[in-house]
Amino acid sequence: MKQVQRGFTLIELVMVIVILGILAAVAIPKFVDLSADARKASVQGVAGALSSGSAINYATFSARGTGTAVNSCDAAKGTLQGGSFPSAEYTADTTAFGTASGASNNCVLTFTPSGGTAVTASFIAITTP
């Protein structure tokens, strides 16, 4: 009478462990350093909010004659809800525009986390008196 084999052999178990090890070695580096991507996404989000806030501010100024004065990239932060950047780690250019009302100006927003590398993103600020 022949015996029926049940379970896995040692070789099959070792092969599964080796395959899982190879998959882990390939996948782990992709998930380990997501902080750089998070910083980049964060500064791009704030830059997008500044562009949108500046456009809405200019539209309000054009329609009603009131709004926040935007004459530099740093002054564009006044168009955000609360009137300031999310934290002190964000900075924008402080150079005055010197252009007429309604002009689009290219600005650079910099995010410098403590102990980290600075990340930048650009945004458009529209001049309002």
Automatic annotation (TrEMBL):
InterPro entries listed in its UniProt record: N_methyl_site, Pilin-like
Bilayer-spanning residue ranges: 7-28
Taxonomic superkingdom: Bacteria
Signal sequence, start to end: none
Gene3D superfamilies according to UniProt: Glycoprotein, Type 4 Pilin
Alphabetical list of PROSITE patterns matching this protein: PROKAR_NTER_METHYL
Name of the protein this chain belongs to: Type II secretion system protein
Originating organism: Rhodoferax potami
Lineage: Bacteria, Pseudomonadati, Pseudomonadota, Betaproteobacteria, Burkholderiales
